[in-house]
Amino acid sequence: MVGACLLLQWVGGALQRAAATALGERVDALLQHELMKAVAAPSGVRHLEDPATAALVEVGRDTLRADWARPGRLASTIGGLATGRIILVASGIILAGFHWWLGAGLLVAGVWAAYEDRVASRTEAGHHYGATESARRMRYFNDLGTTPPAAKEIRLFGLPAFVVGRHGETWAATMQRVLTPAGRRPLVATAFLGVVVLGGIVLVVREAMAGHIAAGPTATYVQTFLVALGGIQQSSWSGLQTELALATLDRYDEAMRAIAPTAAPADRGSQPATGMPQREIAFQNVSFSYPGTSREVLSDLDLVIPAGQSLAVVGANGAGKTSLVKLLCGLYEPNRGSVLIDGVELQDLDTDDWRRRLAVVFQQPVRLPMSAYSNVRFGRDDADVEIAVERAGAKSVVEALPNDWDTVLSAEFDGGVELSGGEWQRLGLARALYAVQQGASVLVLDEPAAHLDARSEAELYRRFLDLTAGLTTILISHRFSTVRQASSIVVLDEGRVIEQGSHDELLQRDGTYAHLFRLQAARFDGGPE
């Protein structure tokens, strides 16, 4: 009978743990899904630079990766917390059969110790989440010292010791806040519990030696004290885990509420963008500044881009060239002014429909640690990607891969390879041409050939302009041998259009464009700079 009960207890415990684990995993998976939806819901990217979103992502990381703070642990920690409390109450009842005041003393001591542990757990959880920014800094320094992107510069400039030192300093500053002095009350509560337990055991042993209680009850009472301590310890540990998980949920809800206004469906337009632009893209009196700064990168900018023609945009670093592209893509909204597509406000268009009209290649195209095929197709409808790759001049890149289209483009995976900067840019260009095959009518090339030499870049742009004849094409480049091929050229300076015209027209005006063109040409001619 006893064996059957023990077997039943063991099976029941195993089933309870399995069920709690499964439930916890489902809870964490649901939170991960909701986190991704909340961050991805806004059509722009301004919210990603907001502290509330950073906090949301940080809490999401703790929720999904840090085992000690996952809300899913509540499924098991609450059970452990309840079990510990039940053990304490049962122990008090048993000891009350020996001396009522001893059972009552154990209950008071246990409840007091549990209360102080709960206060300490909440304090620790608060300290942890109060150090969220420090945690991000620690991860940043850790990534600097352990991941490939910054590895060359870190070593060439002799920075390993600096990075390790800053990581240690940040950790020390964080721990200084977390490991605050506990105060006297927890120590007094623990001491009182120790006096009750040790004193009770001494009392039981003395009563047994005096012959007042038999050996069986003596062993039971002593064992009860030990079991009670185990229950209090279990309750304390489960309480800490519960408080951390609840604190994670609180911060998660707080961050979700903070980001909710930016994800309002009403912010999106509903007018279809099919076939646009047919006449023009117009920037009217547009001013724009990035979140957290009052400096305007675009200021009262007016620009008209005729549909079906090519426009090149040039200017010094910080002139607003890439910001212009981000506004066109709807990643940000102007602080003032309007972006119009065939006379329709960009914000009134269906965002997803408009972006299907765009094929954009930024200077640093995203690098997916996936197959070469996925890097070109990039989530669009299935079609013949080889045509786009050949047009982009990237066929040789794919043919050189060990597993052709199935090769994973990351050396961090078995059988994967890492591409050079120029090879990645050619795949990025193929990605844009593939989007054109899928119906995109606006092609934007933002310094996509920066890793190529001047001759190769000029040839690449020439080929692109031939292949995309009839499309609205926007070229951004510092190389004037490239931009001279465009139908029209715009010169930006401090967020404004200061010159516009064809290459020959701008040279005849002998303004900023002509001056910069001659400076750059002098380098290749061997003349003075």
CATH architectural grouping of the largest domain: 3-Layer(aba) Sandwich
DSSP helical segment count: 19
List the strand order in the largest sheet.
Answer: 6-7-8-3-9-10
Q: Strand count, sense and closure of the main sheet?
A: 6 strands, mixed
Q: What radius of gyration results from the CA coordinates?
A: 33 Å
- Unreliable spans are none
Instruction: State the helicity in percent bands.
Output: 55-70%
| Beta-strand share of residues | 5-15%
CATH superfamily of the largest domain: P-loop containing nucleotide triphosphate hydrolases
Q: Span between N and C termini?
A: 98 Å
The ordered H/E elements are: HHHHHHHHHEEEHEEHEHHHHEHEHEEHH
Task: Characterize the structure shown.
It is a single chain. This protein has 529 residues and is α/β, with parallel strands linked by helices. The protein folds into two domains: 30-118 and 186-263, no CATH class; 280-525, 3-Layer(aba) Sandwich (Rossmann fold), CATH 3.40.50. 58% of the residues lie in helices and 11% in strands. It contains 19 helices and ten strands. The chain is elongated.
